[in-house]
Structures are given as C-alpha cells and as structure tokens.
Amino acid sequence: MTGRRRLAAGLTAAVVLMGLAGCGLPSGVDGKLANQWSMPPAAQEVQAKVGDCRTATQEQVNPVTESMVPCTGSHNREVVYIGEFTGASAALTTPPTLQKKATGAAATAQAEAYAECSKQASAYVGHSWYHPRLDLNVVLPTSAAWTAGRKWYRCELQQVDWYSYDDETREGTLKDFTYPIACMNFGNDESRVVGCTAKHNGEYVGSFTALSQARPNTTAQYAPYHTKCRALAGPYLGVTAAQVRYLTGTYVWFSYNEDYAASGRQDVHCFLWYGEKKSMTGTAKGKRGTNLPK
After folding, report:
1. Using an 8 Å Cβ cutoff, are 128 and 290 in contact?
2. Contact 155/117 with Cβ under 8 angstroms?
3. 183 near 195, Cβ under 8 Å?
4. What's phi and psi for 128, nearest 5 deg?
5. What is the largest distance, in Å, between two alpha-carbon atoms of the chain?
6. pLDDT for 179
C-alpha cells in the first residue's frame, strides 16, 4: 500500500510539471517543489501503558493498530511493565520470539526479558505474582517495527485454566489483587484447582526458579526440589521447614516443559501433597499441620 501511494504522488508531481511547461510561473512561485516546504509529521507509535488491558493474545503486536479495553470489563491480558532491549539483544535482526529449544542471543534475550517481567509483575500486583491461575507473557513488536528500530518488550499477565492451560477472560485489574488460596485435586488423569471447602489432596504454597535447565528424573535429582518446596511450605503452615516432612509430602510442578528452559521459563510450583488416597477440606495455611490428613 505504501508503494502505491508513493507512485501516485510521483505521477501527480509529473503532471503538475508538465502542465507548467511552456507557461509562465505565477508570481512568487519559483518552481522548486521541495524548497522551504515543511515535512509531514511522522506517524506516531501509540504504545500501551502499564495498567492497560486487551482482549487479544498474540505474541507480536503493532501498537498503532491494536486497541485496549477497560480492565473493569472482560479482557485477557493486562500490561504490567514495558522495557527496552539493549546490547546484543537489541542487535538481533529479528524479534526474539519464544521458541522451543532456543539458543544463543535469542534465548538470552527472552530469558532476560522474562526475568525482568517476573520481577516487575510482582511489584505491580503487590506480592509474588505466581499463582496456578496466572501466566506471564513477553510481548514483542512486529518484525517490521523491530526492523524500524522499535526494540521494546511488554510484560503481560493472563489468567489461565490450570488443567488445560487455556486462556481465560477476567474482569477487574490484577493490581493489588490477591487470588484466594489454591487447593488442588491431583489425579492420574487430571489436576484441577478447587475451592478449599471441597475435598482435595494438595494445596499451593509458592514457587521458585528451577535449580537447573535440565529436568530432574531420579529421586535423588528431585530431592533438592522437595527441599526448596518444604522451605516454602514451612512458613505457609506455620512450622519450620524441617518439620514439614513429618506432617505432609510435597508436590513439584514445572510450569513449562524443558524445551523452554533456555528462554527463562523455569518456574517451579510447590504444593502440599497428602497422597493419592487421602484428602481434606479447608485450608492448611497457618494451622501448623493440626488439620492435615493422617
């Protein structure tokens, strides 16, 4: 479309010159079309602001054409931070989109952006942003915008269904918002977030960054992960981390598969785990293990 506009403008100028040929110029006209003419204003990039919400979920956006909606209404994403790539990340010839088994500068750029997004998302919501119902996304400019020098990235939180990981719409801002305690039903075929008044065999206690990009496979490799989870479970229950192993088990859940580990997606969620055949109602938070199933 741009090329056609330029061609039309060139033809118009040629017609004007041909019309003037052989005739005298009007008084005050020197015939120099580009002399002392001001340039038209450059197209302004209208970029979303922190706190804006949108219904679209694409990874790359053109801020000039995308539209925002009030967070009080139905939406999918909420902007929590906008940053700028620098150094080797900014020097990439294409935007560093999230790819499986990424390597080199593209993986590093994604990892750096995600780490900053994670920190800023927690600052935005007023506490750790991690929750089984939330996902954090790095949004990038289109390839054309990147080539034109737009090297920003945007951090957006999105509500998801824990079991299917499908996008969900929500109403209301996540700023200073806290989800209710997440109790879980872990099963062989499915794992779902349930209300704590329903029977459940697990409860979310917190998250941390994986200890290695390689996924643990053996009991020995999982041991330090359970140690980290007990360190989160202790304060949650109101006991020491050392006491947790005598009260309940812990369940380790990786939020992404290891194909994305090099791009910074190494979030590990920790849950209390009562076993396949045990369940309880009510939350264990702050009860010092007194209401846990035996």
Report:
1. no
2. yes
3. yes
4. -55, 130
5. 104
6. 95
**pLDDT 10s digits, 228-285:** 999 999 999 999 999 999 999 999 999 998 999 999 999 999 999 999 999 999 999 9
33: number of Cβ within 10 Å: 9
Contact present, 270 and 233 (Cβ < 8 Å) = yes
Which residue pairs, CB below 8 angstroms and at least 24 apart, start in 193-201? 193/132, 193/133, 193/162, 193/163, 196/281, 196/282, 196/283, 197/281, 197/282, 198/281, 199/279, 199/280, 199/281, 200/279, 200/280, 200/281, 201/273, 201/274, 201/275, 201/276, 201/278, 201/279, 201/280
What mean pLDDT is predicted for residues 213-232? Answer: 97
Please give the angle made by the CA atoms of 200, 201 and 203, to the nearest 5 degrees. 85
Look up residue 51 and give its amino acid: G
Rounded to 10 degrees, the C-alpha dihedral 75/76/82/86 comes to -150
Distance CA 76, CA 56 (A): 7
Give dist(CA 285, CA 111) in Å, integer.
33
* 270: helix, strand or coil: strand
